[in-house]
Design a protein that fits this description.
Layout lengths: L1 H7 L3 H51 L7 H47 L8 H4 L13 H13 L6 H10 L14 E6 L8 E7 L4 E5 L6 E5 L16 E6 L4 E6 L1 E4 L4 E4 L3 E6 L5 E7 L8 H6 L4 E8 L6 E7 L3 E7 L6 E5 L9 H5 L3 E5 L3 H7 L2
Antiparallel strand pairs: 1-6, 2-5, 2-13, 3-4, 5-6, 7-8, 9-10, 10-11, 11-12, 12-15, 13-14
Helix pairs in contact: 2-3, 5-6
Length: about 375
């Protein structure tokens, strides 16, 4: 508080008024998030009902139980349900936009009051930044760093191609200058090896140079840096928001979340991914993941609780011809999955955001999920005892 007074040059009365204004903004934001979440939950429930009804209709059609007289009625029902889904989605989008507009209007009024009380948003941000730009790790150190990271986990240096893939994922250094030397957060989990299946690399990345991240500020968003790239089988783990490597040769899963960058506030910070995995006797693995921007209003936990996170389930099934991959993921960001295995094709899955891949990506895509890869893999995994 003493530093805050010094930064603001304020009296105790002003500090109290600023605190009250900030509490008001936080309360309005929480209410906006709750209202938006309620709207999304209602939409998801209605879309699930529509999906169930369409599924029943398609089953009747597939079983050949319809007469010629029934077919036109079924076609009309399918059209009505499709249009209902479109209308419900459009209505919810309008309502969420209205909630956002109301929050923005209130925020602008509150910020004007804050400035009147002597507080300029952003004054303290540079002081409180959890990560500050510093010299990136030299490229010349990369190889040795990878060796040390791998040896720390396995007690031996890397030698095979799979070893080096995993060593790269385990390396806790940032080499890209934009990350300012701030390290990623890395978590590791052991699995039963399945020799011959190689390494399955999943990268979740932001194609655009920047994306809008909501903020307690005006305008009510900051332009956080994206990954600014397309699909690339040679992209290193630092070139994505979240990477998940499944090394079937060494029996390990490595998940890492790279630093997020808010240039306006001068902050660099890495979030912590939440990853869980279930493996069956045949070696198949179901991975559930969640990761949020550490700069999200209210923090990562709130973002994950209100569908403002990158999340999904990826299922990998070993076969005689190499891994099959399927699952369900958020529409944003882009996802690429590769398999590094001798004699096998590299690409398994490429999926671009369905709605938009520019600055609006998080707002448009994090609410929605879509299937990826082989759509039979996830149901097959879930059907196993």
């Amino acid at each position: 508080m003493q530093r805050t007074v010094q930064e603001l040059g304020s009296t105790s009365a002003q500090i109290q008024k600023v605190a009250t204004d900030l509490e008001t903004i936080a309360a309005v934001l929480a209410e906006a998030q709750r209202a938006a979440s309620d709207q999304i939950a209602q939409l998801e429930s209605r879309l699930q009902q529509i999906d169930d009804q369409l599924g029943q209709a398609f089953q009747l059609e597939a079983r050949g139980l319809l007469t010629e007289e029934d077919q036109p009625a079924l076609d009309a029902l399918i059209h009505i349900e499709d249009q209902d889904a479109i209308d419900c989605t459009a209505t919810t989008l309008h309502q969420v936009n209205s909630i956002r507009t109301a929050y923005s209007d209130t925020l602008q009024t509150s910020l004007a009051a804050l400035r009147t009380d002597g507080y300029e948003p952003g004054v303290l941000q540079a002081v409180d930044a959890s990560g500050t730009p510093s010299r990136a790790e030299p490229e010349s150190n990369r190889r040795q760093n990878e060796i040390e990271a791998f040896t720390k986990v396995f007690g031996r240096p890397p030698s095979s191609a799979a070893d080096w893939d995993t060593a790269e994922a385990l390396d806790p250094h940032s080499y890209n200058p934009k990350n300012g030397g701030v390290p990623p957060n890395i978590i590791v989990s052991r699995i039963t090896p399945v020799p011959g299946q190689g390494v399955v690399r999943t990268n979740l990345f932001i194609p655009s140079r920047t994306v809008w991240n909501p903020e307690l500020d005006w305008p009510p968003y900051h332009e956080n840096l994206g990954d600014n790239r397309g699909f690339s089988p040679t992209a290193d783990p630092e070139a994505s928001r979240i990477s998940v490597f499944v090394d079937y040769e060494n029996g390990i899963i490595v998940a890492r979340q790279n630093p997020s960058i808010d240039p306006k506030a001068g902050q660099i910070r890495a979030g912590t991914p939440a990853v869980s995995a279930v493996q069956q006797k045949n070696g198949a693995i179901s991975i559930t993941y969640s990761g949020a921007d550490p700069f999200s209003p209210g923090g990562e936990d709130l973002a994950k609780a209100t569908s403002l996170d990158v999340n999904g389930t990826i299922v990998i099934e070993p076969t005689a011809t190499g891994p099959r991959v399927g699952g369900t993921v958020t529409d944003f960001p882009a996802i690429e999955i590769y398999n590094d295995r001798s004699g096998a094709p590299t690409t398994l899955v490429h999926s671009w955001p369905t709605y938009v891949d520019d600055e609006l990506g998080p707002m448009a895509g994090l609410w929605w999920h879509k299937p990826i890869g082989d759509e039979s893999v996830e149901p097959h995994f879930n059907a196993q005892p």
